[in-house]
Write a structure and sequence with these properties.
Keywords: Carboxypeptidase, Hydrolase, Protease. With about 425 residues, the protein is an alpha+beta fold. The chain has two domains: about 130 residues, Immunoglobulin-like; about 270 residues, Zn peptidases (Aminopeptidase, 3-Layer(aba) Sandwich), CATH 3.40.630. The protein is built from nine helices and 17 strands. It binds zinc ion.
Amino acid sequence: MQTAGYSLSGLILSLLLLAVPVEAGELVVSADFPGGSAEVLKVDQQTRSITVCPAGDPQFGWPCWWYFKVSGIKPGETLTVSVDASNLKQANGSKLSANWALPERAAFSLDRKTWKQTGSGTREEDHCRWTQQVDAEQAWFAWGPPFVPSDAQTLVDRLSRKHEDVTAFELCKTRAGRSVPALVLSPDGKHSDDRMVIWIQARQHAWESGGSWVGRGFIEWAVSDDPLAVALREKVDIYYVPIMDIDNVATGNGGKNQIPHDHNRDWSEMPRWNAVQAAMKALKQFDKQNRLVMFVDLHNPGASSKQPFFYIAPPELNTQRRKALQDNFIAICREEMQEPLKLDRSTPSTGPKYDKRWKEISSNWVRSATREHVVGITLETCWNTPHSHPQGYMTVGQQLGRGIARYLKQDPRQSPALD
Ligand SMILES: [Zn+2]
C-alpha cells in the first residue's frame, strides 16, 4: 500500500501547491509568447514529466505545431516531455494524423537562440515521449526549431545594417495588421533595367519552420564571400521573404489547409492573403520587365521524407524549353546537395490529381503566369531526420544558393526555344 500512501501525500502536496502559485523547483509550462502553442494536459512534479497537446485552432490550419517554455527546472535534472497527438483534427472535423506533430527528435533550447535536438523519442501510438537533461532553470521545447516574426525582422534588419547592398522593406501588412518583413539584395550603382531577379520565400505554411531556416541559410550565403555568391550578386537582384504567413506563425497556428484555403492555394485572380497579393504583384512586374528568372518556395514535407526534394512542373504546365531549364537546375542542385542531406532523385509534381486548387499553388501560378524561361519550383526539406536542425537546414540553403548561382552562369533568358 506504499503506492497509495505516496499518491495520497502527492494529492495533499498538489492541493497545498494549488494555494501557492509557484513553489521553488515547481515545473511551470507556458506558451503565451509569439509562436507558442501548447495545452498542458499534465505536469507531474514528482517524476518531472510534462504532457501537452498542440493548441492550434484547426480553422487556422493543421494543429501539428507545438512550442512551449518550461521554468522551475533544477539545473542538471532530466525532464520527460510528452506530446499527445491523439486528438488532432482538421478544419472539417476529420482526424489529422499524429505523425505530423511527432518528430522523432524534438527541438529544445536554453535561450531561444541555439536550438538543438533531443535524443530519439519513444513513440506509443499517437503519443511520443522525449527525455532531456537540462542545465538551466528554464528551457523551451518545440516540434522543430522555431523561427517567429521577430526572427524574420531581426534577420532582415541585421543583414541590411551589415551589408550596404541589402535593403530591408515591408512586403505588406497582414490582414491582422502585422508587418511582413522582406529584403532585397541589389548592389548599389548596379541598378539597371536588365538585371535578373530571383525570388525566394518560405512559410506559406506556418508550421513548416524548417523552410525559414533553409531561407536563412540561403540569404546569409548570398551576402557571403563565396565566389559563387559574389558572382551571383554581380548580375542578379535577390528578393527574400522569410515568413509569408506571419499571422499564423505569430499565433502558433499551423496554417496548412486553413479556412477558406491556405497561402499556397491562394495564387489566383483574387488573392485573399496580403503577402500573396504583394508577391504576385512584384513577380508580375519583374516578369513584365523581362527580369524574373527564378522563383523558389520553401516548405517542409510529410514525416516519412528523409531527403530534400523538389516538386516540379506538372506536364500540363510544361514546355520543352521550360522542362530543359528546370532539369538543368535540378541536376546542378543534385551535385551541390550531397551532405548532410542528399537531394532525392524523386521529383513529384503538383498537377490536377494533387489538389483541386492545384493552379493556385505558387509555383504553378509562376509557371503559368510568367515567361517560359522562368523556373518556378518548390523545395521540400525533410524535417524528421538527425540533420533537421538549424545547421542542417541552413546548409541546404547554402547549397541551394550555390545551385542557383551555377545555374544562372548562363542567362536563361538567352536559352533557345525548343518547341
Ligand atoms: Zn508546405
